[in-house]
Amino acid sequence: MLFGRILPRSFYARSTVEVARGLLGKVLVHGPTAGIIVETEAYLGGEDLAAHSARGLTGRTRVIFGPPGHAYVYLIYGMYECLNLVAERDGRPGCVLIRALQPVSGLELMHARRPGARQPEQFANGPGKLTLALGITRAHNGADVTRGPLVVRQGEGAGPVEIVVTPRIGITRAAELPLRFLIARNGFVSGTRYNGPSLR
DNA sequence: GGTAGGATGGGCT
DNA sequence: GCCCATCCTACCC
User: Fold this and answer.
1) What is the set of domains in chain A, with CATH numbers?
2) What's the Å distance between residue A57 CA and nucleotide B12 C1'?
3) What is the pLDDT of residue A191?
4) Confidence tier at A192 by pLDDT (50, 70, 90)
5) pLDDT tens, position by position, A123-136
6) How far is CA A17 from CA A30, A147, A150, A179, in A?
7) What number is the average pLDDT over the span A169-182?
């Protein structure tokens, strides 16, 4: 199967940090478009005041409290949508924000959806950009990512990846916690205008 | 190379 | 009414 097997629900039924780290190197697939996950952030339950679930179970946060392996998609700044994957066992909050992808399939379509981006490095190097590039919207909120059409696959051949840990981006509360995870030396991560062929 | 500011609408107090 | 888990443009070195 292209890009390997679909990750089973048991992959997501772990601690949010384990899932956030484990997703690096896996392949997010939607229709003809796909990208390697190269950057994630963990949003925990309980004492993590940066997480949407910190305010409790509401109409918006319902999915975060539900079973693992589902998509939580929300609107940010009135314009962009962000994709999270729900972790932890059913009833416990916790989700992983997907922050950047390295495109591996459907690059022409991704470019058409992101006309301002000049290079593949910029097609999906941010949470709002990757949903645009892959055609993910709030219509996918609550979708089961072990069933499709939006799925995460194991990837091929890739061994364990070297992971860099930093504080999360763009938040004010709990801003110091080391909960952002990136593949080391990967040029497709967010937060840089870097345009060249490789990074360091 | 860099950054300041604006767009824009839903969720929550 | 205020706050955003963002991105792009204009403008300035």
Assistant:
1) 9-159 (3.10.300.10)
2) 12
3) 80
4) low
5) 999 999 999 999 99
6) 24, 23, 22, 7
7) 96
Q: Which of A88, A104, A119, A82 is nearest to A20 (CA)?
A: A88
- Rounded, the Å distance between the CA of A159 and C1' of B11 is 41
A13-25 average pLDDT score:
98
Question: What average pLDDT does range A165-186 have in this prediction?
Answer: 96
CA of residue A79 to C1' of nucleotide B1, angstroms: 28
Which chain C nucleotides are covered by protein, judged by CB under 7 A? 4-9
CB atoms within 10 A of CB A59: 6
Kindly write down the DSSP assignment for every residue of A71-115, as one continuous string.
Answer: EEEEEETTTEEEEEEE-SSTTS--EEEEEEEEEEE-HHHHHHH-T
